[in-house]
Amino acid sequence: MSSKEETHQRLKAAVHYTVGLLCQRTGENHQTEFSRQVIAAIAETTFRQCDTFAKDLEAFARHAKRSTISTEDVKLAARRSTALSRFIQNKYEELNHEQRDLKKKNTGKRKNRDTEENRE
After folding, report:
1. CA distance 55 to 15
2. Which residues, at least 6 apart from 24, have a Cβ–Cβ distance to it below 8 Å?
3. pLDDT digits (tens, 9 = 90+) for 40-60
4. Residues 56, 57, 59, 64: is their CA dihedral positive or negative?
5. d(Cα 25, Cα 117) in Å, to the nearest integer?
6. CA–CA distance, 42 with 36 (Å, rounded to integer)
7. Tens digits of per-residue pLDDT, 63-87?
8. HSE (CB half, 13 Å, CA atoms) of 80?
9. For the chain, which terminal residue's Cβ has fewer other Cβ atoms within 10 angstroms, N or C?
């Protein structure tokens, strides 16, 4: 088995394990059990969806002649799902708002420091 195939299998196993944990927690919260076949089907679907997203993101960045995937690429990939697109857009705006707040705080600190130095 090549290292690429080995990495692929390890990623698949990690997704399967995580889906199993999520199904177990969800089952406990809703008094439901998930069969092994259902967990395997969810894991396989999740893995394929992630693979599709990754390929789309690479294609969008390549089309824009970039080697780095940007938030705009993620928003484009999410357009297939309205709920996911809204969620990503809200997170993007939330992060931008937090960054602006940090810049304002830092600017305010600099102004205060400059004012104090001028007083001396």
Report:
1. 18
2. 34
3. 999 999 999 999 999 999 999
4. positive
5. 57
6. 10
7. 999 999 998 899 888 888 899 889 9
8. 8
9. C
E strands present in 1-120:
none
Handedness of CA 27, 32, 33, 38 (dihedral sign): negative
Alpha helices of the chain — where are they, by DSSP H?
3-30, 36-63, 71-77, 82-119
Task: Quote the CA–CA distance of 47 and 9 in Å, as a whole number.
Answer: 11
Length of the chain, in residues: 120
Which of 41, 45, 39, 47 has the alpha carbon at shortest distance from 22?
39
pTM recorded for the entire structure:
0.67
Q: Are 43 and 16 in contact (CB under 8 A)?
A: yes
Cα-Cα-Cα-Cα dihedral of 87, 92, 97, 98, to 10°? Answer: 100
Encoded amino acid at 4, one letter:
K
